[in-house]
């Protein structure tokens, strides 16, 4: 059954991309992102339904008799509800967080089933999950770094304008509005990637034979970094903060990210 490995990976990839799309729509009310996320999630539902019907009609097994089979049926229900709600109603908050829970449930079920059904390939899938966890976390840090650079450029440009220093540097830094917008977009892209990375990391820790420490400094630090950048989005989207004040907050958030990466990482029991 090793050929199923790529199907499991495809489901997780489609679900992860869908989650990013729903997050962008949740923050920006972006209908294009919502439609893309809906069709990606629909593909996940088709694949899940295929496996479900295979178990019922070919394997003669109703997938509710064990805990892990129940997880699969539960995940299928969540995806189904999410698609219906997204299609018939406009409840972005509910749709996004339903998909976060659904992604976690699918991840636990598929990785556990892979270990049981795919033998060595299941172990390989779990190890790949760790690689993806680390990769997505680093990519998200890359977006947060870009956001920080845009914020610093904004603050420098703001200072030059305040002092009325009309020189070549002023024009090379770029427009204040664009710098503020690019900084915001970078955070929007970084947050869902870090969220997915954390979900992957927690799931890996749950199913891996290695010891997982909830109270590990890097684990707690990653949750705090995510929280800080969510606070940034709340201040930006809900409270309407823009310009200099949010750029200062973003710069502080990046300093905390550096503390988590270098200091907490060096104190961690299993992170690098």
From TrEMBL:
In its UniProt entry, what is this protein called? Answer: HemX protein
Q: How does it sit in the membrane?
A: Multi-pass membrane protein
Domain of life according to the entry: Bacteria
Example GO biological process: cytochrome complex assembly
Which chain regions cross the lipid bilayer? Answer: 6-24, 36-58, 70-86, 93-110, 130-156, 182-207, 219-235, 247-267
Q: Name one GO molecular function term.
A: heme binding
Its subcellular locations are: Membrane
Pfam families assigned: Cytochrom_C_asm
Keywords in alphabetical order: Membrane, Transmembrane, Transmembrane helix
Record's InterPro entries?
Cyt_c_assembly (IPR002541), Cyt_c_biogenesis_CcsA/CcmC (IPR045062)
Q: Which GO terms describe its cellular component?
A: plasma membrane
Species of origin = Halobacillus alkaliphilus
- Domain named Cytochrome c assembly protein is located at 66-268
- ATP-binding in keyword set: no
């Amino acid at each position: 059954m090793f050929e199923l490995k790529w199907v499991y990976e495809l489901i997780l990839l489609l679900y992860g991309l869908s989650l990013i799309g729903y997050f962008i729509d949740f923050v920006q009310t972006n209908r294009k992102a919502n439609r893309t996320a809906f069709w990606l999630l629909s593909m996940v539902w088709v694949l899940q339904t295929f496996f479900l019907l295979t178990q019922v009609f070919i394997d003669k097994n109703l997938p509710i008799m064990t805990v892990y089979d129940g997880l699969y049926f539960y995940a299928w229900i969540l995806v189904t509800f999410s698609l219906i709600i997204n299609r018939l109603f406009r409840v972005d908050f509910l749709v996004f967080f339903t998909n976060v829970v659904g992604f976690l449930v699918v991840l636990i079920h598929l990785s556990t089933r892979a270990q049981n059904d795919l033998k060595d390939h299941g172990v390989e899938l779990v190890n790949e999950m760790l690689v993806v966890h680390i990769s997505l976390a680093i990519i998200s840090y890359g977006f947060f770094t870009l956001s920080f650079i845009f914020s610093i450029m904004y603050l420098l440009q703001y200072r030059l304008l305040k002092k009325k220093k009309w020189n070549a540097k002023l024009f090379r830094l770029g427009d204040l509005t664009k710098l503020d917008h690019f900084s915001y977009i970078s955070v929007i892209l970084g947050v869902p990637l870090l969220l997915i990375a954390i979900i992957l990391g927690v799931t890996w820790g749950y199913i891996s034979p290695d010891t997982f420490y909830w109270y590990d400094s890097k684990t707690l630090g990653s949750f705090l970094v995510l929280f800080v950048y969510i606070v940034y989005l709340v201040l930006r989207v809900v409270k309407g903060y823009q310009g200099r004040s949010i750029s200062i907050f973003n710069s502080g958030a990046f300093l905390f990210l550096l503390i988590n990466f270098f200091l907490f990482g060096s104190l961690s029991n299993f992170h690098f």
